C-alpha cells in the first residue's frame, strides 16, 4: 500500500487477537429465518432439503479451514470448533468471525439450486456469527451438549389466554408466528421435539394451530406417544436421528493406526444410547483394552502391545509403526456427516483429537 498523508487512519484499527491456548467456537445463525422459511415454503415438520443445504454450507467452511475439526448444526445455525492451537489469521477475532460467516452465507446461496431445484431464491438469506472462547474440555463438551439439547427445542410461544404453538424453525418447517407472543423457558428437550411432532401431525390432519395446541394442552409424554401411535401410526422412536439429533461434521483419519479389540462392547456408555454407532462402541472397547493392558503391566504380566482382532499379537514392525505414528489432528481426511449423540462419552472417546 502506497504511503500517503491519509495513512494515519490505520491507527484507529484496534488489534483483537483471541487468547492463546483456548478453544475457539464460531456459531453462525440465520437472521430472520422464520420469514425466510415461510417465503420459500419449507416442508413441515422437517425439511431435509434445508438441512442438507445447511450441511453443504458447513462443509464449505471446513474445506476452507483445516483447523475446524468439528461442526454441529441444527435448525438455522451451525457451530464450528477450531483446534486449540490454531493460529489462523493470527487468531484475530474479527477476521475469523467475518470470514466464517461470509463463506457459510455464500456457500448457502451458491448451492441453493442444487438442493431446491426449480425453487427461485426470492431474496438473499443472511447469517450473523459470533466467536466464543472456552478454557477447557468440559466447557467445550458442555457447549455442544447444550446445542444438541437445543436441537430438540425450537421455541415455544404463548398468548395471554394460554394458547400458542411452536415457533418457526427449519427442522420443524415452521410454526405459529412469533411477533405478538412471548418466549418461555423450554421444558426438557425431548418433550419439545415430541410436542412439535404431535403438533404438526394434528395440523396436517386438519386442525388449526390453535386447535392443535388445545388438543395437546395438559398431555404428558406418554399421552403424546399414544396419540402419535394410535391416531397416526407413528412410533416416535422411529423418527430418523437426522431430525432428532442434528448434524455433526467431522473428518475421518485417512491412515488409522490399527487397534485391537478383545471383544465387542455392547455398552457404549454407562447411560446407554439406542443410537450408539459401531465407531462409538469401538472407542469404548479400545478404552477398556488400554485399561486391561495397564493393569497387566502393573502386575508384571504380559502386555505385548497392540493386538489384532482375536487378541493375537501384532507383527513387531507393525507395532513399532503404531508407536511412531504421529497422532491424528483432525485436519485432514474425508469430511463425513453424522447424526448421533454428542452429549455422552463415546463420540468424544472415538475422536480424542477434537479436544487436544
Task: Write structural notes for this entry.
- The chain has 356 residues and is α+β, with helices and mostly antiparallel strands.
- Among the domains are: 156-239, no CATH class; 252-355, no CATH class.
- It is 38% helix and 13% strand.
- The chain contains twelve helices and nine strands.
- The strands form two sheets. A six-stranded antiparallel β-sheet has the order 4-1-3-2-8-9, sandwiched between helices. The chain has a three-stranded antiparallel β-sheet with strand order 6-5-7.
- Helix 6 crosses helix 7.
- The longest helix is centred in the last third of the chain and has 21 residues, at 278-298.
- Keywords: GTP-binding, Magnesium, Metal-binding, Nucleotide-binding, Nucleotidyltransferase, Transferase, tRNA processing.
- Residues 296-326 are annotated as: Disordered.
- Mg(2+) 1 binds at residues 29-30, 76.
Short description:
Adds a GMP to the 5'-end of tRNA(His) after transcription and RNase P cleavage. The protein is an alpha+beta fold.
Secondary structure layout:
Blueprint: E1 23-31, H1 33-39, H2 48-64, E2 68-74, E3 77-82, H3 93-110, H4 112-115, E4 126-134, H5 137-151, E5 156-158, E6 164-166, E7 182-183, H6 189-204, H7 209-216, H8 221-232, H9 241-245, E8 247-251, H10 278-298, H11 316-324, E9 335-338, H12 345-349
Antiparallel strand pairs: 1-3, 1-4, 2-3, 2-8, 5-6, 5-7, 8-9
Helix pairs in contact: 2-3, 6-7, 6-8
Catalytic activity: a 5'-end ribonucleotide-tRNA(His) + GTP + ATP + H2O = a 5'-end phospho-guanosine-ribonucleotide-tRNA(His) + AMP + 2 diphosphate + H(+)
Domain Thg1 C-terminal: 189-343
EC number: 2.7.7.79
Amino acid at each position: 500500500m502506497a504511503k500517503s498523508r491519509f495513512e494515519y487512519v490505520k491507527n484507529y484499527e484496534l488489534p483483537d487477537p483471541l487468547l492463546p491456548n483456548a478453544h475457539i467456537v464460531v456459531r453462525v445463525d440465520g437472521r430472520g429465518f422464520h420469514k425466510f422459511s415461510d417465503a420459500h415454503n419449507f416442508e413441515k415438520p422437517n425439511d431435509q432439503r434445508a438441512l442438507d443445504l445447511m450441511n453443504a454450507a458447513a462443509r464449505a467452511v471446513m474445506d476452507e479451514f483445516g483447523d475446524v475439526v468439528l461442526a454441529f448444526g441444527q435448525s438455522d445455525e451451525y457451530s464450528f470448533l477450531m483446534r486449540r492451537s490454531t493460529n489462523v489469521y493470527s487468531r484475530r477475532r474479527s477476521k475469523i468471525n467475518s470470514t466464517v460467516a461470509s463463506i457459510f452465507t455464500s456457500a448457502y446461496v451458491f448451492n441453493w439450486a442444487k438442493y431446491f431445484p426449480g425453487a427461485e431464491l426470492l431474496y438473499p438469506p443472511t447469517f450473523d456469527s459470533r466467536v466464543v472462547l472456552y478454557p477447557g474440555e468440559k466447557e467445550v463438551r458442555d457447549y455442544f451438549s447444550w446445542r444438541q439439547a437445543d436441537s430438540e427445542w425450537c421455541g415455544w410461544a404463548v398468548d395471554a389466554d394460554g394458547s400458542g404453538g411452536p415457533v418457526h424453525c427449519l427442522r420443524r418447517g415452521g410454526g405459529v408466528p412469533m411477533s405478538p407472543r412471548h418466549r418461555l423457558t423450554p421444558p426438557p428437550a425431548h418433550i419439545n421435539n415430541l410436542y412439535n411432532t404431535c403438533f404438526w401431525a394434528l395440523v396436517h390432519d386438519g386442525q388449526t394451530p390453535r386447535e392443535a395446541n388445545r388438543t395437546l394442552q395438559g398431555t404428558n409424554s406418554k399421552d403424546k406417544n399414544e396419540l402419535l401411535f394410535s391416531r397416526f401410526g407413528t412410533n416416535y422412536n422411529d423418527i430418523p436421528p437426522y431430525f432428532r439429533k442434528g448434524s455433526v461434521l467431522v473428518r475421518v483419519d485417512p491412515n488409522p493406526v490399527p487397534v485391537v479389540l478383545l471383544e465387542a462392547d455392547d455398552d457404549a456408555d454407562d447411560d446407554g444410547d439406542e443410537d450408539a454407532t459401531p465407531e462409538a462402541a469401538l472407542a469404548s472397547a479400545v478404552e477398556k483394552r488400554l485399561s486391561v493392558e495397564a493393569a497387566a503391566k502393573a502386575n508384571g504380566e504380559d502386555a505385548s502391545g497392540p493386538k489384532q482382532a482375536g487378541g493375537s499379537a501384532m507383527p513387531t514392525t507393525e507395532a513399532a509403526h503404531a508407536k511412531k505414528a504421529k497422532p491424528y489432528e483432525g485436519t485432514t481426511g474425508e469430511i463425513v456427516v453424522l447424526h448421533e449423540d454428542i452429549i455422552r462419552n463415546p463420540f468424544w472417546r472415538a475422536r480424542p483429537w477434537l479436544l487436544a
